[in-house]
Automatic annotation (TrEMBL):
InterPro entries, A to Z: 2-IPM_HCS-like (IPR050073), 2-isopropylmalate_synth_dimer (IPR013709), AIPM/Hcit_synth_CS (IPR002034), Aldolase_TIM (IPR013785), LeuA/HCS_post-cat (IPR054691), LeuA_allosteric_dom_sf (IPR036230), LeuA_bact_synth (IPR005671), PYR_CT (IPR000891)
UniProt KW Transcription keyword: no
Subunit structure: Homodimer.
Protein's organism: Desulfosporosinus fructosivorans
Record carries keyword Isomerase: no
Transmembrane segments: none
Family: Belongs to the alpha-IPM synthase/homocitrate synthase family. LeuA type 1 subfamily.
Name of the protein this chain belongs to: 2-isopropylmalate synthase
GO CC field: cytoplasm
Binding site for Mn(2+): 13, 201, 203, 237
Residue stretches making up the Pyruvate carboxyltransferase domain: 4-266
Pathway(s) the chain acts in: Amino-acid biosynthesis; L-leucine biosynthesis; L-leucine from 3-methyl-2-oxobutanoate: step 1/4
């Protein structure tokens, strides 16, 4: 197996993302985690860019050991001098210097001829070599350069002492097969290429950074550059975790191995997200919140029978404790039974069918049904048979002062409709129910709370009614609609009151 060196540029190219500026302490914290992750090279910053970045690179060079610490420069002596100064205390220092090699970069940006670019590239590498033995050269915008000119530049910088040659797709323009061909071309057409490590550095403008990096590695590149969570300028850089896990999952396909400890991937991703403030999208490959979450019945049933049906990576491999079965309106009985079993309920057959039907009613109103919802669902099913059924209700409000409720109840098989006003929706609702049921008990207390998380949480309403004989009955109702929960709680209290009356009458 060929060794694949992993070059992390979260702190340099990742930090070029709009909205991210990391201070010394933050960069240091990420660096220590990158060491735990097992990267080979940390590109700590661009020392010439600001005093703050100079300080960061200096501190990382001094405090982070056992890994190559790299700083970026232009092909310019002033940048290289500052970078060398910043890396002074590094155990393994690397200067990463380079220059644009595509026609548009040379003509429009640098205003240099191709010959001048070669000359400046060689001069920069030689100058950096005075400070450190490990010099990486980047041929900026290599993909849009002509392969023959690129080969000429690379050949010259290797002769000047470059130990690593970086072939970036700076603007994310390549297709995977083309990028693979370019790496193959460099490897087969540059004299003395075996004196240097060939590196891939891709951007995600067309969403192909991972594919392009993999194509470059397959074609023979031995260094992978990228960032955690794929952060970076514009659409970002190659997500290191995606390439690492592609190689891990399809080991036979690439013929390389890295020293990355995949179990640190999740922790690293979370740390970078927390510190940079850049949220990882839920559907992001490998590190997204949904990456190991099964949400539909057929998948859940498959995974419960054998994880391999729908899982190509075990979550433990990247440091996520376990996969997740999320209950939704698309879940089936197997998933519901499994989640209830995890909570200690063993149900099957008709009882499972019954709970499942009620579960679906709830799930249709919510994006996700949580454990707390299940407790409520199970608690509800053990309750008393209701003699009063809420068939429908509607509330009309007029400002904050006035509301009218129209309620349809079924009592002992008879449907009764009525309406009443109140000083708010709940008051109007309770007044209407009183009119229909002839209730005379006094409402002593009414509370409402959320019993599950998320914005569409289940509301729990509690109603306390004081009977004429002084007895107190407590009713509870649950619903994602708090007015409905209130009606259910009121009816539940009336039901209990009636039941008690019957018991008393019987005795
Ligand atoms: C593809 C990449 O990610 S490259 C890295 C991008 N990172 C950064 O830009 C880091 C942050 N940058 C900075 O702090 C500043 O831009 C600095 C300190 C580097 C330079 O600032 P300034 O001196 O004010 O120059 P400015 O950024 O406006 O322009 C860049 C200059 O460098 C030149 N230049 C650009 N790249 C290179 C290079 N690789 N080698 C030599 N010269 C270069 C440009 O042609 C331009 O030169 P000019 O002034 O003669 O026209
Ligand atoms: C500076 C180089 C390596 C770069 O970031 C790019 O070309 O994208």
């Amino acid at each position: 197996m060929r060794k694949l060196y992993v070059f992390d540029t979260t702190l340099r190219d990742g930090e070029q993302s709009l909205g991210i500026t990391l201070n010394v302490k933050e960069k240091l914290e990420i660096s220590h985690q990158l060491v735990r992750l097992g990267v080979d090279i940390i590109e700590a910053g661009f020392p010439a860019s600001s005093p703050g970045d100079m300080e960061s690179v200096k501190t990382i060079a001094k405090e982070v050991k056992g890994v190559i610490i790299c700083g970026l420069t232009r092909a310019a002596v002033q940048d290289i001098d500052l970078c060398a100064e910043a890396l002074h205390n590094a155990e393994y220092p690397r200067i990463h210097t380079g220059i644009g090699v595509s026609p548009v970069h040379m003509e429009k940006k640098l205003k240099l001829t191709p010959d001048q670019v070669v000359e400046q590239a060689v001069a920069a590498v030689k100058y950096a070599k005075k400070y450190v033995s490990d010099v990486e050269f980047y041929a900026e915008d290599a993909f849009r350069s002509s392969p023959t000119f690129l080969a000429r530049v690379i050949e010259n910088v290797i002769s000047a002492g470059a130990t690593v040659v970086n072939i970036p797709d700076t603007v994310g323009y390549a297709n995977p097969w083309e990028y693979g061909e370019l790496i193959n071309y460099v490897i087969n057409n540059v004299k003395n290429i075996d004196r240097a490590i060939v590196s891939v550095h891709c951007h995600n403008d067309l969403g192909m950074a991972t594919a392009n990096s993999l194509a470059g590695i397959k074609a023979g590149a031995s260094q992978l550059e990228g960032t955690i969570n794929g952060i970076g300028e514009r659409a970002g850089n190659t997500s290191l975790e995606e390439v690492i896990m592609s190689i891990y999952t399809r080991r036979d396909g690439y013929g390389v191995e890295s020293k990355i400890n995949t179990r640190e991937i999740s922790a690293t991703s979370r740390l970078v997200s927390r510190i940079t403030g850049v949220t990882v999208p839920d559907h992001k490959a490998i590190v997204g919140a949904n990456a190991f979450n099964h949400a539909s019945g057929i998948h859940q049933d498959g995974v419960l029978k054998d994880r391999k049906t729908y899982e190509i990576i075990q979550p433990e491999t990247i440091g996520v404790p376990q996969n997740i079965i999320s209950l939704t309106a698309r879940s089936g009985r197997h998933a519901l039974q499994h989640c209830l079993m995890e909570l200690g309920y063993t149900i099957e057959g008709a009882q499972l069918d019954d709970v499942y039907q009620r579960f679906l009613q709830l799930a249709d109103q919510k994006k996700e049904v949580f454990d707390q919802d299940l407790y409520v669902l199970m608690g509800d099913s053990g309750g008393i048979e209701s003699s009063i059924v809420l068939q429908s209700m509607s509330i009309a409000t007029n400002g904050v002062e006035m509301a009218t409720a129209t309620v349809i109840l079924e009592i002992a098989g008879k449907t009764i409709t009525d309406a009443a006003c109140g000083n708010g929706p709940v008051n109007a609702l309770f007044n209407t129910i009183d009119r229909i049921t002839g209730n005379t008990a006094i409402l002593e207390d009414y509370t409402l709370k959320s019993v599950t998380r998320s914005s569409e949480a289940l509301g729990e309403a509690t109603v306390k009614l004081r009977n004429n004989d002084g007895r107190l009955v407590v009713g509870k109702g649950f619903s994602t609609d708090i007015i409905e929960a209130s009606a259910k709680a009121y009816i539940n209290a009336l039901d209990k009151r009636n039941l008690h009356t019957e018991l008393v009458t019987e005795s």
